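The instructor's notes for this session suggest beginning with a concrete chain rather than abstract definitions. Hand out the sequence below and ask the class to guess, before any prediction is shown, which regions might be ordered.
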Amino acid sequence: MPFSAAAEALRVAAAPQADEEAEVAALGHVLLPRKQKELYKAMQMGNAKKKAQADTLRARKAAC
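After discussion, reveal the predicted structure:
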């Protein structure tokens, strides 16, 4: 079995696990009380903001 075929087989095998993990993460906050849902949402917004700032800095660095 060539290396590329083995890598493709691993990628295909890992795809359902990634879908399951995303689904569990999405359903995990559904069962939280309202106050914890709001805190979770605020944390996610903060993480997205930090990621956006980091991405703009990386883009600036790459442009130089």
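Then share the key points. The chain has a mean pLDDT of 83. Residues 44 and 50 are 10 Å apart (CA to CA).
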